[in-house]
Amino acid sequence: MIAEPDGPEGRLRRFATIWSRAVFPATSTSLTRPEFEELLLPLARRLSEALRARTFEAEEGKAVGAALVSAHCTDPDALAHSLECVDAYLVLYCGGDGSQEDLRIRSARLQHAMAAGFAQALRERTLAEQEAISVAALQAQGVVAQALHATEARFRAVFEGAAIGIGMADLDGNILQVNGALLRMFGITEQTMGGRNVREWTHPDDAPQTWTLYDELVRGEREHYHVEKAFYRPDGTVLWTNLTVSLLRDADGNPQYQLALMEDTTERRLLNLRLRYEATHDALTGLPNRTLFFERLEKALGAGNNQRFGLCYLDLDGFKTINDSLGHAAGDRLLVEVADRLQSCATAPGEMVARLGGDEFVALTTGPDTEREVDELAGRIMNALITPVSIDGRDLTVRGSIGIVEGPAGERGPAEVLRSADITMYRAKSAGGNRFELADPEADARVITRHGLTTALPAALDRGEFFIEYQPLVHLGDGSVRGAEALVRWLHPQHGVLGPDRFIPLAEHTGLIVPLGRWVLEQSVRQARAWRESYGDGVPLRINVNLSPCQLTHPGLVQDTVDILERTGVSPDALCLEVTESALIGADDDLLKPLRRLAEMGVDIALDDFGTGYSNLANLRRLPVSILKLDRSFTQSMQQFPADPVDLKIVEGIVSLAHSLNLAVTVEGVETGAQAEQLRILGCDTAQGWYYARPGPPDRLHDLALVDATG
Fold first, then answer.
1. Could you count the other beta carbons within 10 Å of the beta carbon of residue 703?
2. Residues 600 and 572 sit within 8 Å (Cβ to Cβ)
3. CA count, 13 A, side-chain hemisphere, 408
4. Residue 658: is it exposed, middle or buried by C-beta count within 10 angstroms (0-12/13-18/19+)?
5. What is the C-alpha to C-alpha distance for residues 598 and 558, in angstroms, rounded to an integer?
6. Distances (CA, A) of 148 to 81, 124, 127
7. What is the spatial distance between Cα 623 and Cα 581, in angstroms, rounded to a whole number?
8. Among 5, 57, 106, 618, fewest CB within 10 Å belongs to which?
């Protein structure tokens, strides 16, 4: 490994040293090797500055090539060694921190310019020698002829020995000379090349400016240009090149020839195309992958001129079951078949299908009329999935849920559009699947808010953002306060106070309901102790705490409750746990066992929302409950007088049944005095509702209880 000299000047000196050692043996000079190095040092500096200049100047390379001739480095090997040295070491020692690929390209262009300058200087020197010899004396004609022959021989050696393709043509484009490297690149003979014209070499992939640059060069308006260009070979294959074309002028500065230098980049281009394909296509199905899809979607969303887009987001229904039952190999074959069918659905201009991953696919359509086209595209996709897929002799039914997003370009970004399509797809799946749904901004907003709340839940508990409000339970016989139901609230930093209906389902879904429920239970029991300490035994207030289905199945329910009661010093009869009727429908003994243990300890168990679960009334005998909480739907008609007689009969029957089973009856949602009086007449025991008090802080219950106690 070559140790890098310290500083730019040191690296430049190292380059000049290497250059002098390579060229000195092929140079006819009286200088010593160190003196020759000092001669090359300013030339090396010119190359270094041209390599890193803001604007590339080919004239610097030509000047260096001409300077080699002036320094008597006219041997063919001198130029060849110089070009090899520049190619191998110029970027290494003089490139600095610039882009290596750009520096390599500029180094190659400098080499081309050096060769052109060297060739032009040789020709001018030859012409000068010819003129000087002609003027000097006729007898020196033999010597002049010999020198001219030697000069042309040296130029021919450089021309033929170059590793890159070199060709010369006149300003009309007629090809005059080509070297062997160029003939090998095209796979033709020199005879076949003869008579060809540069303008015959057009290709469909030519960049738009290619021939404009060419015309400017032959008119003398530019000295050179560099492009990536494709050529057809005689066998029909394509040759890709890095092409540099330079203008050669005569002694008076008039355009005379054009010199082309070609580097064969076909294999490198094919490799890059292959790598690009692999990076942008799914290995299993061959469809475009997420990367390429996002590129196309971003382009579609950035289009103007009243363009629109339509996106179908497809997820297969039940794919996991197929994978689990038949194996991943069968699942992969199914995905390949689905991909083929989807591909056949999106063949119109502006349409594409991609696989995002797993069993998720997307179809995109663009144009001015995507409102209609995206519906048709979704319909074609659903129809394509109807026919069963045969895997290992089994006919598998394929179903899918599609979320559709359609709209004008320029209003949303790719991530937002895909998120909306994903949300809509899950809405279609929740509705039963095998269907497609259109995006709804309001539904999207609800889902996004829901997701945000779900994400914020764990930290909210740690930060103490939850608090509890209490709604009094009133005895219908004497109007005394007998306790309160604990209702948890979330003081969200952005959304304000949220009721339990907004976050309890999320807590149940994430499993956070267990620690949250434990916290609510402990805070409520501590509050019950505080009330009893304030009011004494004369006001035996009870606290009601709701249990979710997840808490019922948690193995630590009984132990957590016992620990909390013991730590707070509260007797079990001060606690009532409310369980919804729907949670106990069809409950087996294992589920009821924890409730029975709590009931045996003296904790009351209330059956909440009674009457909404359509349970068998006979099952009440096997449930360890002591209280029925009648759902408000049975008593709403009692807010006005007279009440619906059918509702009166139903409530009367439930109360009679409950009392016959030694169960107390609590009614929720009492909002008027007439309703409270009617429920008292029917025999209900306790009630709660806005008629008595809205849920509030514990001090409010303190005030109500003191009023009752001092009555």
1. 11
2. no
3. 5
4. buried
5. 7
6. 23, 11, 9
7. 10
8. 618
d(CA 51, CA 88): 14
List, for residues 237-270, the tens digit of each pLDDT value: 999 999 999 999 988 889 999 999 999 998 888 8
Give the global pTM.
Answer: 0.51
Instruction: Give the rounded distance of the alpha carbon of 15 from its chain centre.
Output: 46
Q: Give per-residue pLDDT as tens, 597-621.
A: 999 999 999 998 887 655 556 677 7
Q: Tell me the two tokens of residue 396.
A: 């598998």
Is the pLDDT at 539 greater than 90? The verdict is no
* Separation of alpha carbons 406 and 310, rounded Å: 4
CA-to-CA distance for 28 and 30, rounded, in angstroms? 7
Residues listed for the chain: 711
For the segment 209-214, the average pLDDT, to the nearest whole number, is 93
How far, rounded to the nearest angstrom, does the alpha carbon of residue 42 sit from its chain's CA centroid? 52
pLDDT at 543: 93
Q: What is the rounded distance in angstroms from the CA atom of residue 201 to the CA atom of residue 665?
A: 97
Token output for 607: 């059956």
Smallest CA-to-CA distance from 407 within 496, 303, 329, 259 is with: 303
Phi-psi region of 305 (alpha: psi -120 to 50; beta: other; left: phi over 0): left
Q: Please tell me whether residue 62 adopts helix, strand or coil conformation.
A: helix
At 18, phi and psi to the nearest 5? -60, -40
What mean pLDDT do residues 503-527 have?
Answer: 90
Per-residue burial over 491-502, b = 16 or more CB atoms within 10 Å of its CB, e = otherwise: ebeeeeebeeeb
d(CA 250, CA 253): 5
The answer to whether 581 and 542 have CB atoms below 8 angstroms apart is no
- Phi/psi at 393 (nearest 5 deg)? 80, 0
Which tens digits make up the pLDDT trace of 634-687? 787 777 767 778 888 888 888 998 898 899 999 998 988 888 988 999 999 999
Cα 593–Cα 597–Cα 600 angle in degrees, nearest 5: 135
Bridge-partner residues for 264, per DSSP? 241
- The Cα–Cα gap between 168 and 175 comes to 6
Residues 697, 703, 706: CA angle, nearest 5 degrees? 140
> What does the alpha-carbon distance between residue 33 and residue 81 come to, in Å, rounded to a whole number?
16
- Closest by CA position to 309, among listed 358, 388, 368: 368
Helices 500-510, 441-462: inter-axial angle, 10-degree rounding: 70
Q: Which helix (H) or strand (E) holds 541?
A: none
Q: What whole-number distance in Å separates Cα of residue 30 and Cα of residue 387?
A: 89
Question: What tokens appear for 309 in the block?
Answer: 């887009």
pLDDT value of position 711: 46
Place of tokens 């029957």: 653
Sign of the torsion formed by the C-alpha atoms of 287, 291, 292 and 295: positive
Report yes or no: 666 and 473 within 8 Å, Cβ to Cβ. yes
Cis peptide bond prior to 368, omega within 30° of 0: no
pLDDT confidence bin for 216, thresholds 50/70/90: very high
Confidence of residue 103 (pLDDT cuts 50, 70, 90): confident
Cα 87 to Cα 108: distance, rounded to the nearest angstrom: 7
CA 9/CA 668 separation, integer angstroms: 91
CB–CB of 663/625 below 8 Å?
A: yes
Other beta carbons within 10 angstroms of residue 470's beta carbon come to 26
Tens digit of each residue's pLDDT (9 = 90 or more) over 169-189: 999 999 998 888 889 888 888
Q: How far apart are CA 585 and CA 614, in angstroms?
A: 8
Kindly report the number of other CB atoms within 10 A of residue 592's CB atom: 17
Whether the pLDDT of residue 155 is over 80: the answer is no
**DSSP reduced 3-state for 663:** coil
Whole-number Å distance between alpha carbons of 73 and 147: 15
